[in-house]
Amino acid sequence: MANCCLSANFTGSHEETDVLKKNLQNLDKHLGPYPFEMWKKWLSLSSRITTAVIRKIESAPQKVPAVAELVETPVVNTGLPVKENILNSDDQLLAPRQENPLMALNFTEIPKNSFPKGSSAGDITKYSMDTSFVLQQMLSLWESPSELLAELQMVFLYFVIGQVYSAFEHWKHLTHIFCSADEMVSKNPSLIMEFIGDLYFQMQEVPTDFFVDIISSENFLVKTLRVLFANILENSEVDPQLKRRMIQFKQFVTQRFQWDFDAEPEDEAPMIVEMIENHM
Fold this sequence. Notes:
This is Protein AAR2 homolog. Pfam families: AAR2 (PF05282), AAR2_1st (PF20981). By secondary structure, the protein is mainly alpha-helical. Helices cover 54% and strands 2% of the residues.
């Protein structure tokens, strides 16, 4: 292990390298045991991340801040008299700020158009719920589909380790897009299968109450996964291997988080209206 690290990182002369190699046994007493149980876990969470993916997402920063660093932008002269400017609200008097481009992470942009140009009314309605077109556009920005999955791994690690909230928000968006891509279940089952596998490892690393919405009894991941499970189960031509993996994953999250995916969502339940008879 030490010999491998030495040859990869050490830039000394051949004589210095030979001396260090011969002295490795003396160095062992100063080294701590490597946590191999953490190493396996790290591999499962970062298996797809490559140097190319890191360079694209971290195109500018050498350090990733937990909170977005804001910088002032030039104030545009409004041409208003000083008296009127003073009467403006405090928010207007504050110098406008924007995220520091030197520290911002370069996440894959989520397309604004969710349906192809020239789509019929029926297709517009379809793609408002099916995110396959959006997912396909995002995949086209990478050399291989695995790289978008690598981004999903990276943003999860940014939040879990670095507490970068913007990364968590992007992770939520990516997860929703993968889960709601109904067409991709048939067109690219291996991609959805790999996504479920990555999500499985991520779900092992978060507390059981992590995704609970403090405002409502439901959380976004229950709703999102319910869509994914329905897309797979209701597809008569679904790949059997994908269906098996989905069922295993559903059983895992149901047991770990005590989520009920079979219960009818409150917003889809029939409304009961009590009729009051009007006696004339």
